[in-house]
């Protein structure tokens, strides 16, 4: 098309063109958000080489230089929160308020790590030998490959890029092919904020091309990945072969326990938010609602009434509570699981219908199953859509057992007014994050994020704990 704009990849400080792919709005498939260049395997190799070449200088750069870049980036993201939030809503399908909220969070992450640049600390210890001093410091590990998913297209790139740069690493970023727009915007902002060439490289495109080239490279010192469990295993195997650090954030099948003594309104709001907001497309979403007998029927009735009030529509429309599923492939996955749930013997209590709206999009009713068991596929496999199942249990002890009976361990929640049960659940839940009377999907930007079992591998993300992945420890001895 004559005069069209193609958003290019950034390699060694230069914007590089390539085969372009269309970024489609899932709320309106007639709306092309933009055309974004797809990197080749050679482009990816060039980006890695640039990051490797830039590492020695950037890793020894002054802390004020790094602080200034990250602070400028935070300030610009915050100033453009409405614009960037609209971009996010158009390309991913989050409602506009959710999208703006995620954009603000990205700004907060860059601001936090701008501060971390000035808080780099080590230890000075006496040796067990006389007249010898010991210094323990943290240093950047080298070029980092960052692979991000489509469900948080601005926050997850932010919480990986910001610490990588703050601690002196260089970066090769591969965002999800479905949502390149927000990643491009962040890279453009960082580039204009004054990063030297080669420090940050953007290679958009298919995982089979760009991601594979990253996995095969021996020049990346680390890869941090968020995405599917299957791809995460491939990242791990490839990283072991190259003896590099790797960090994996993968799936979840998170439980929300509702006890008889719970405040019903609190429980319903937490369950609705956890299971269905952001169209259920969160690794921290609660798709297993484990409910004790005494409150079960009241909870199901109240949650069903709540779901009836939620408006599914265009992400940009005022009053929309739930936007579309991200694309036709994910919509098919969701509807296939709904059929699987019916075939397994669960009862469809609400929803499950593909909806028509004013614009062509991937709209799905929030879907609630009851009479589910924890052995059903809908209770064991991550669906990644607005589909949740209610599992009836006798008491707290059975609820805890069922909650922990999963190959995943990212987030878990409990609704209760019992301090005894809340305290016991926090200690005995086999999850990396535990919420009491709160949605399982709400986390802060300055504290560690991550899970256990099949959900995560490696050190935690976010907050000061990010240093565990993005740095290595050096111990130096000096004779006085």
Report on the architecture of this protein:
The chain has 480 residues and is of the alpha/beta class. It has 15 helices and 25 strands. It folds into two domains: 6-250 and 455-479, Aldehyde Dehydrogenase, Chain A, domain 1; 254-436, Aldehyde Dehydrogenase, Chain A, domain 2 (3-Layer(aba) Sandwich). A seven-stranded mixed β-sheet has the order 15-18-19-14-13-21-22, sandwiched between helices. It has a six-stranded mixed β-sheet with strand order 10-9-8-11-12-24, with helices on both faces. Strands 1-5-4 form a three-stranded mixed β-sheet, covered by helices on one side. Helix 1 (41-59) crosses helix 7.
Shape: globular
Number of domains: 2
For the biggest β-sheet, the strand order reads: 15-18-19-14-13-21-22
- CATH overall fold name of the largest domain: Aldehyde Dehydrogenase, Chain A, domain 1
Please indicate the percent range of residues in DSSP E strands (runs of 2 or more): 15-25%
The count of β-strands is 25
- Average pLDDT, rounded to a whole number, is 97
Quaternary status of these chains? single chain
Number of separate helices: 15
């Amino acid at each position: 098309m004559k005069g069209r704009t193609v958003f290019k990849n950034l390699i060694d400080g230069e914007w590089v063109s390539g085969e372009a792919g269309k970024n489609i709005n899932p709320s309106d498939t007639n709306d092309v958000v933009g055309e974004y260049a797809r990197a080749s395997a050679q482009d990816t190799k060039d980006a890695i080489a640039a990051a490797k070449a830039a590492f020695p200088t950037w890793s020894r750069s002054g802390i004020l230089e790094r602080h200034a870049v990250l602070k400028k980036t935070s300030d610009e993201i915050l100033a453009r929160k409405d614009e960037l939030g609209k971009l996010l809503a158009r390309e991913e399908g989050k409602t506009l308020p959710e999208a703006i909220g995620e954009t603000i969070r990205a700004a907060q992450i860059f601001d936090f790590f701008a501060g971390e640049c000035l808080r780099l600390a080590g230890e000075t210890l006496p040796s067990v030998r006389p007249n010898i001093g010991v210094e323990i410091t943290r240093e950047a590990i080298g070029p980092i490959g960052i692979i991000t998913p489509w469900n948080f297209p601005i926050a997850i790139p932010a919480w990986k890029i910001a610490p990588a740069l703050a601690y002196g690493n260089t970066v090769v970023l591969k965002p999800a092919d479905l949502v390149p727009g927000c990643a491009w915007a962040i890279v453009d902002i960082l580039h204009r904020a004054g990063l030297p060439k080669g420090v940050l490289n953007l290679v958009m495109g298919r995982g089979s091309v760009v991601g594979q080239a990253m996995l095969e490279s021996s020049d990346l010192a680390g890869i941090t990945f968020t995405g599917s469990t299957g791809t995460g295993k491939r990242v791990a195997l490839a990283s072991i072969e190259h003896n590099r650090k790797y960090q994996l954030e993968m799936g979840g099948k998170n439980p929300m326990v509702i006890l008889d003594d719970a405040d019903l309104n609190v429980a319903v709001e937490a369950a609705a938010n956890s299971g269905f907001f952001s169209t259920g497309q969160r690794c921290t979403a609660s798709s297993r609602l484990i409910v004790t007998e005494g409150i079960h029927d009241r909870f199901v009735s109240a949650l069903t009434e709540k779901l009836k009030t939620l408006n599914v529509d265009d992400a940009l429309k005022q009053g929309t509570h739930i936007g579309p599923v991200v694309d036709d492939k994910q919509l098919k996955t969701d509807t296939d699981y709904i059929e699987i749930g019916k075939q397994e013997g669960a009862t469809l209590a609400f929803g499950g219908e593909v909806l028509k709206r004013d614009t062509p999009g991937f709209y799905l009713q929030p879907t609630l199953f009851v009479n589910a068991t924890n052995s059903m596929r809908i209770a064991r496999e991550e669906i990644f859509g607005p589909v949740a199942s209610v599992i009836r249990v006798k008491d707290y002890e059975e609820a805890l057992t069922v909650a922990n009976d999963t190959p995943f361990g990212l987030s878990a929640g409990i609704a209760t007014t019992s301090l005894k049960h809340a305290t016991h659940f926090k200690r005995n839940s086999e999850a990396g994050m535990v919420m009491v009377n709160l949605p399982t999907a709400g986390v802060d930007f300055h504290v560690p994020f991550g899970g256990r079992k099949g959900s995560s591998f490696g050190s935690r993300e976010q907050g000061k704990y990010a240093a565990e992945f993005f740095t290595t420890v050096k111990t130096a001895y000096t004779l006085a």
